Amino acid sequence: MKRVAVLGSTGSIGVQALEVISGTDELELHSILCAKRADLLGSQARRFRPSKACIVDPPEGCDCSGFITGQDSLEAAIGGADIVLNAIVGSEGLRASLLTAQIGIPLALANKESLVVGGELLRKHISAGSVIPVDSEHSTVFRCLQGEERPADRILLTASGGSLRDVPLERIETATPSEVLEHPTWNMGARITVDSATMVNKAFEVIEAGWLFPGIPVGVLLHPQSVVHSLVRLEDGSWKALLGTPDMKIPIQYALLWPSGGLKRISHDSPLDWTELAFEPLDALRYPAFGIVLCAGESGGTCPAVANAADEVAVEAFLDGRILFGGIGEIIDSVLSDHVPGKITCLQDVLEADRWARTEAGKAVEKRC
Ligand code: MG
Q1: Is the sign of the CA dihedral 130, 294, 178, 57 positive or negative?
Q2: Which of 126, 155, 280, 302 is the most exposed place for a label (fewest CB within 10 A)?
Q3: How confident is the model over 169-208, as pLDDT tens digits?
Q4: How far is the CA of 310 from the centre of ligand 1 (A)?
């Protein structure tokens, strides 16, 4: 039995991971950890019976008896686990990834920010083969590369195009939060759904792929049905892909059972319609923020951390109704252009870039209110 620590258990991936673990004989739930949601954590603890339930920042007045709380909760959740599923939302997840790498146990990574902002710091753990991606596109690439002795020479990440894919261009600027949160194919958390509509998520995924699969050029292909979950070109010129109904339980299960597990059918009643599969190039006019974040990835160093922090602040402001949808990319762009790039050599470098970018993005939001 593999003991799994589920970090971010109350989020979308965390909730699905608990279902996967409880339905799989080879996996045992070691611990659950969340930031704040004590009620949901309590009901998860009663239903799934982990050895430890941890809450980092319990809300005032909540009954936390039986929970491990505060700053030590992360160490407590990871300690004694055989594998960590990091499904923490946002750049907070980096600390958990670094701790997992330090302890030297496998990391099933759903927190893409760990690589976007701190890939440099996880390089050794990745090259040791101890980071197994959970992001659906990267899970696909990872699976496609299994059993291939010769290196691949091209990766194409597929993108659904997000909730505004078919909205007329002139209406995108003023799209409302409720329109944006209607994702056509994937059921995910709020921030990532907004990031899909701006394609910032896809730019982050290109950066993520750069760390996970070094040396292989990465492109993006629009594929509205989200059935082909990315493609890899092998040395002989043939392409390999993984196809299936979009369901995060599939990459979650794969990562947790890798390399030895018996994969179980994740059940689906809806048959796939193969005749409907379509592919298109990405329209740069529709997704201006994509190119901005991609450039930050190419610049490297602290730039991706700055782009990520500015995006987090801008997305929150958009969801609160303080800025327009079109303002998200503009804020990321303006914060990046004021940034003097630095190197990432330790967590502190990331945190400083993150803090600076949040302050600057906050000011940019205020200016627009
Ligand atoms: Mg993805």
Answers
A1: positive
A2: 280
A3: 999 999 999 999 987 776 677 888 999 999 999 999 999 9
A4: 20
